[in-house]
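Minutes, project check-in
Item: structure for the 227-residue chain
Input as provided by the requester:
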Amino acid sequence: MIFGMWDEVLFHLGPIPVDHLVVTEWVLIALIGTIAYLATRNMQLVPRGLQNAFEAIIIWTYDFFTQLMDKEHVAKKWAPLLTAFFLFILFSNYSGLIPGAANIPGYQPPTSNWNVTMTLALITFFSVHIAGFSEHGGGYFRHFVSPNPAFLPLNLIEEIAHPLSLTVRLFGNIFGEEMVIAFLLFLAPFIIPSAMMGLSLLLGAIQAIVFTILSASYIAASTGEAH
């Protein structure tokens, strides 16, 4: 992997430069969208094949990531976002394990770039407050001065800390993993990296689950009765 070429511009869309990272994201989004389309274009009452597999993923993500939410209507409303988070992060993490990917100039898994993880974290940040306001109206903002107006600065710091921690956690783990694999690939091209890549399959899934379940817990907290 040639780390110095991460920001190399491939082409421009008008005045907007498009680099390898953006193209990789487009490919992953297109891949997820294509799988979703193929799985749902001819829905059957008794699912089979790709429809059955896709429905299993949707049901699992709904059950797993929304179990923190006490209100069913909130869970149903935000389950699509949480499922999208999980699938995009999982595909992004695993894209670094594609054979030969490390030798593609400028290529990197999107989640190993802090711009991508920060964007995902900001989506969570705004979703949390939109969910809280939708559920509680103007009364939602009372939690910023709870239990006492003197706690306003601390409560604001806590809100800022949520997207920051999501950004750093996902970026740090995936970037560090990519660096280790690239270094070991240089030292022992066929032995050590194979074991690391096997471990990466597990870690990639864990990081996708952790980010999504934290996002779910923040949404659950903002929509809960405590607010």
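Outcome recorded: The first strand starts at residue 9 and ends at 13.
No further action items on this chain.
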